[in-house]
Amino acid sequence: MKIKHLFIMAGAGILAGIISAIVYSEAHPIQPPVAVSYNPYDNGVYATGIVESYQVNGSNVNIYPEVSGKVTRIFLKDGDVVNKDTPILAIDDSVQRGIVDKDEAQVKSAQASLINSKDQLNKIRKSYKLNHQSVSLNDLDNAINAVKIAEENVKVAQGQYQSDKALLDKYVVKSSIDGTVLHIEAAVGAYVSPQGSYDTYTQGMLPTVQMGVVTPYMQVRAYVDEILTPYLPTSSKLEATMFIRGLDNKSIPLEFSYLQPFTIPNIELSDQRNERVDVRVLPIIFKFKKPDDINIFAGQLVDVFIKGKA
Questions:
Q1: What is the CATH number of domain 62-90+174-206?
Q2: What is d(CA 247, CA 244) in angstroms, rounded to the nearest whole number?
Q3: CA–CA distances in Å: residue 191 to residues 196, 199, 218, 272, 273
Q4: Any idea where the domains of the chain sit in the sequence?
Q5: pLDDT digit string, tens, across residues 156-204
Q6: Confidence tier at 12 by pLDDT (50, 70, 90)
Q7: CA diameter of the chain
């Protein structure tokens, strides 16, 4: 029986090996790539780009609160098109509102003291006019000085009130431009400060609100590796083409805007604060008209080919 079992097991192993060899030797067709983008230039220089709202300078508009506190209300949502000074969110202002109410009461108290001092001065002057002996010059001078002091107290109280009231207005974060709300980082109940808002995923402080300019144009910030910068032409007008990732060789012509003549660490695309290898890139900004048949959003990564030296 033992020998018979050994022959059965050996036969099963041989059969399993034959089946495995047949299965794994079967040729599977190679899947084509999802999308392919070809260099449109014979000497094209490759760069990685990020899409931004069109700006004369800088990238997107970052809005930071000027005060700290808990968000109590959000008036807008991502994607809303708004005008300048439109309220975006409100921060808890209960403490500051109490200070303003106190300042307002002090202004009223100072104004009442001023009225009382003026009444006393008028009475003393009338008495002095009727009879110089009825009022001493010292009392008259004191009454005059009391009015001056009361007037200054009113100015101080009003100044403090206006200052604290202006600070109270900062508890409503407003749009600084006519544009589109790209992203609101904060949520109701979250803490915000002049340093921004804490992001759970990046574990860092990000702008509380990011906005873009309303325009038919968008811009792409292309980052050329420092190794490839010698192959760029010296012409002030660079010719470039952008390709959308995920679309098969779909190109969009770019119009040169300007070049930042200063290489920077390659950290902006990865949102990393430190790089193990100090790879530096040259930012070049192009603009383009957003096509109607393609969805393109700010923050999207694209491939850019720049026509190099002949």
A1: 2.40.50.100
A2: 6
A3: 9, 11, 32, 23, 23
A4: 62-90+174-206, 94-169
A5: 999 999 999 999 999 999 999 888 898 999 999 999 999 999 988 878 8
A6: confident
A7: 146
Please report which residue ranges of the chain form alpha helices under DSSP H: 2-24, 94-130, 137-169
Number of C-beta neighbours around residue 32 at 10 A: 8
pLDDT band for position 103 (50/70/90)?
Answer: very high
Q: What is the pLDDT of residues 216-238, one digit of tens each?
A: 888 999 999 999 999 998 877 79
Which one, of 110, 184, 188, lies nearest residue 150 by Cα? 110
Question: Cβ(89)–Cβ(71) under 8 Å?
Answer: yes
35 dihedral zone (left: phi>0; alpha: psi -120 to 50; beta): beta
The token duo for 202 is 């990046």
Q: In Å, how far are 14, 18, 20, 26, 265 from 23, measured between CA atoms?
A: 14, 9, 5, 6, 50
φ and ψ of 193, to 5 deg: -155, 175
CATH topology identical between 62-90+174-206 and 94-169: no
The mean pLDDT value for 131-143 works out to 81
Q: Which residues pair with 192 in a beta bridge?
A: 69, 197
Q: Which class would CATH give 94-169? A: mainly alpha
Q: How many helices (H) and strands (E) does the chain have?
A: 3, 17
**Torsion angle, CA of 42/294/282/62, rounded to 10 degrees?**
170
**What average pLDDT does the structure give for the chain?**
85
**215 secondary structure, DSSP code:** S
